[in-house]
Design brief:
Blueprint: H1 2-33, H2 36-49, H3 59-67, H4 77-105, H5 108-132, H6 136-160, H7 166-191, H8 204-238, H9 241-255, H10 258-272, H11 278-295, H12 299-308, H13 317-343, H14 347-371, H15 375-392, H16 404-423, H17 426-444, H18 446-462
Helix pairs in contact: 1-6, 1-10, 2-5, 2-7, 2-9, 3-5, 3-8, 4-5, 5-6, 5-7, 6-7, 8-14, 8-15, 9-13, 10-11, 10-13, 11-13, 11-16, 12-17, 13-15, 13-16, 14-15, 16-17, 17-18
């Protein structure tokens, strides 16, 4: 089981490293070459796209729970075939309705979003299927194809056609979503070679069961998206386009951490579906805490790039450090607690707690903005929301009890991180933060720290 977990993480890590390379270029070239207004338009579209999952109404997450922990070879092909065909028909109808509404509103951004709903949700169906069944190699290929094709399109518009209009970039994104979906459908058809491939078969039973089982998880996931994007909605509504562009740039830098975080969050769900040993889960939780403390240090290289390459977005630096600090808690929440909610069938509890977090997040943002009306206030609200969510998870998993040193560790790291990020430049800041992290990890989590160092040494030795 441990070997399978490490292998799965490695697959997703490789996929994310490839994604990181292309996304790094994209997220620095776009704000550098495009006007603030057009960059803000692209980031607005990406904000809308994060809510596309709402339009499958829980169907994809129902499938995720249905097949979670199983091998793709052990799933009845006829059952999966009917399941997929039902979603396909459903999404064609949803996209048609949304597009008609968008055309009536005469909003190009909404039209692009409406057209993207179907290919995004069907593409996510395959990603969720491969994630739930441990087919991380296929999952990684989908991620890479999407990122590389969008990267190629973006670079063509900028360096070949010399375009400074956001709508071109949105249209090319939609085309990529359709291409990925079509390729996935062709590949899936090969999977069903021993049975009749159903293109337009609709099962009312599958439709009802998937939505009934997955709706709370979908609402919970989208509520999580709402929570983490709430700050951008406030910035967009209350501040100017420059503030939104700078804030969105900070969020883009924060998203780079996904290259290391996603392998953990994705593979641990499949792992928790099988693992019942409490001590082992506690050990993984503490290792994730150390991992979170290390990975947020990527904010310092991002700041160095701002200081030397993108000075017009330098004012987003404080926002970026506050958002990265919130990830110290979000990484633990998403890697451990959210996966445990899913694996143990506690979707209703997860949804209730997340709803409470959203309400508190809304209040945190309002109060912080009233006290200090600037974009940094919404980042502070995000950090407070993450801390609140972290604590209200504890009662649902009392068996994951914390020792005092384990409890204070993430707060020691947040203080050290913000002090080093706010007071010092990028180079001095990262050196001081590394020292603080090493010292606090050895003092507060010595066993887990030594274990992770040993594991890294073993991996390095295996490559020699």
């Amino acid at each position: 089981m441990a070997t399978s977990l490490k292998k799965g993480m490695l697959y997703v890590m490789i996929a994310n490293l490839i994604n990181l390379g292309f996304n790094l270029i994209t997220n620095f070239v776009l704000p550098k070459e495009l006007s603030v207004e057009n960059y803000a338009m692209i980031k607005t579209f990406q904000l809308y796209i994060s809510y596309a999952g709402l339009f499958h109404f829980g169907f994809v997450d129902g499938m995720y729970l249905k097949y979670g922990g199983k091998s793709v070879n052990n799933i009845k092909k006829d059952d999966l075939n009917t399941n997929l065909s039902t979603l396909r028909i459903f999404q064609i109808l949803v996209t048609f309705i949304c597009t008609i509404v968008a055309i009536c509103l005469k909003n190009p951004l909404f039209i692009c979003f409406s057209l993207a709903v179907m290919p995004i949700n069907l593409g996510n169906y395959f990603k969720q299927l491969y994630q739930a069944t441990g087919e991380f190699g296929l999952y990684g290929k989908i991620m890479n194809a999407n990122t590389i094709l969008i990267f190629i399109a973006n670079m063509m518009w900028i360096f070949i056609f010399r375009v400074d209009s956001g709508i071109y970039f949105l249209v090319s994104n939609v085309v990529v979503y359709f291409l990925i979906w079509i390729v996935l459908e062709i590949n899936c058809r090969r999977m069903f070679k021993d049975t009749r491939y159903k293109i337009f078969t609709f099962s009312v039973k599958e439709f009802i069961n998937n939505i009934r089982d997955g709706i709370l998880l979908t609402v919970g996931n989208l509520s999580s998206v709402l929570l983490t994007s709430m700050d951008r909605w406030f910035v967009k509504a209350l501040l100017d386009t420059m503030a939104f562009a700078q804030y969105s740039f900070a969020v883009s830098m924060e998203n780079f951490m996904n290259v290391a975080v996603t392998p953990v969050t994705i593979t641990l769900y499949n792992f928790f579906c099988r693992e019942k040993n409490v001590d082992r889960i506690k050990k993984i939780r503490n290792q994730v805490m150390i991992f979170a403390a290390v990975i947020v240090s990527s904010a310092f290289p991002a700041r160095f790039i701002l200081e030397t390459y993108l000075r017009k977005y330098l004012n987003s630096s404080r926002v970026m450090f506050l958002l990265f600090a919130s990830q110290l808690f979000y990484i633990i929440i998403k890697s451990i607690y959210v996966n445990l909610y899913k694996a143990q069938g506690k979707q209703r509890t997860y949804f209730i707690k997340l709803t409470l977090v959203i309400v508190m997040g809304f209040l945190f943002n309002i109060v912080c903005f009233k006290i200090y009306p600037a974009k940094e206030s919404f980042a502070i609200g995000t950090l407070l929301s993450a801390i609140f969510w972290y604590f209200i998870c504890f009662p649902d998993f009392k068996w994951l009890d914390y020792k005092i040193r384990e409890l204070i560790y993430p707060f020691v790291q947040v203080i050290a991180f913000l002090v080093c990020g706010f007071i010092f430049n990028a180079i001095i800041g990262i050196l001081l933060y590394i020292v603080c992290t090493v010292v606090s990890s050895l003092i507060l989590l010595p066993e887990e720290t030594k274990g992770m160092v040993t594991m890294v040494k073993d991996k390095v030795s295996s490559f020699r």
